[in-house]
Design a protein that fits this description.
This protein is mainly alpha-helical. The protein is built from seven helices and four strands; from the N terminus they run ββαββαααααα. The chain has two domains: 116 residues; 39 residues. α1 runs antiparallel to α3. The N and C termini lie far apart (69 Å).
Length: 176
Amino acid sequence: MEFSSVRGTESKLRVKVLPRDEAREHLIAIADILAKTLDTTIRIPGTSWFIGLDPLLGLIPGIGDVLANLIGTIILGLATRLRLPRIVLARMSLNLLINGMVGAVPILGDLFSVWFRSHTRNAALLREAAMKPDRETHADWFYVVGIIGATAALLIATIAFVVWLVIKLWKAVVGG
């Protein structure tokens, strides 16, 4: 946005609008369809909750979450074809990473996938960034740094808990 003011004339607001591009709109529509398929295809009877292919695939031990995230990376690929800012790509990657890490926990990870809806978040980020030029902001960088820090802290806490648990079990087994 630009404001111009010259003595004796009115200030006019100029907004830079991206030209209508059918290919761009098509890629955004594909991202929306994939997100809906992965996150909100089926309504859970008697509730206002929807589930998609992601939590259902997550029920398959070992490979289900990997398959869901591989399908989810298609949205990330669409974002790269649209040449979105790197910070948006980083946010989208982190959403997939979080979904994949937490989703690996049996049952709880699938419930998390129903709540977190990483693919819907990514499609929304893609749509927003594709429609606005120069989307990169300080808030985006703060978000990415915060997510990386929280993920690292969670990973360290999980490792510490597992080490503590192994030590306790070892002492119980050997009688120490």
